[in-house]
Amino acid sequence: MDRIDKIKEFLQASPADNFLRHALALEYLKIQEDARARELFEAILDDSPDYVGSYYHLAKLLEKMEETTLAINWYEKGMAIAKKVGDNHSYNELQAAYEDLMY
């Protein structure tokens, strides 16, 4: 059984588990299933806006898809949430990626 199938199996037992959904999205990125990954990242952040780790990956994916304005918006949202929850490491990563895109 491959990783995607295994994660999907775990998700059947815990469909709202953000860690598993995030892991599945990352696996989809590895096989260039960008639309599926995007859908998962967006669902995670719609359901759980404080799930800081997904902001970076969603914004990077949007950059890859040449949706720069959306990527900027997600970086900004992610930085605001990271700051709110006191996650300085994530804030710095988001800020660096944001600045690379902007300048």
Number of helices: 6
Assembly state = single chain
Which residues form runs of ≥5 with pLDDT under 50? none
Find the CATH superfamily. Answer: Tetratricopeptide repeat domain
Which structural category do the helix and sheet elements fall into?
Answer: mainly alpha
The structural domain count equals: 1
Backbone shape: globular
What portion of residues is helical? over 70%
Sheet with the most strands, sense and barrel status: none
Number of strands: 0
Percent in strands: under 5%
Structure characteristics:
about 100 residues; about 80% helix; about 0% strand; globular; mainly alpha; 6 helices; Serine Threonine Protein Phosphatase 5, Tetratricopeptide repeat
Fold and architecture overview:
- With 103 residues, this protein is mainly α.
- The protein has a single domain, classed as Serine Threonine Protein Phosphatase 5, Tetratricopeptide repeat (Alpha Horseshoe), CATH 1.25.40.10.
- It has six helices and no strands.
- It has helices at residues 3-13, 18-30, 34-47, 53-64, 68-85, 88-102.
- Helix 1 (3-13) runs antiparallel to helix 2, helix 3 (34-47) packs antiparallel against helix 4 and helix 4 (53-64) runs parallel beside helix 6 (88-102).
- The longest helix has 18 residues, at 68-85.
- It is globular.
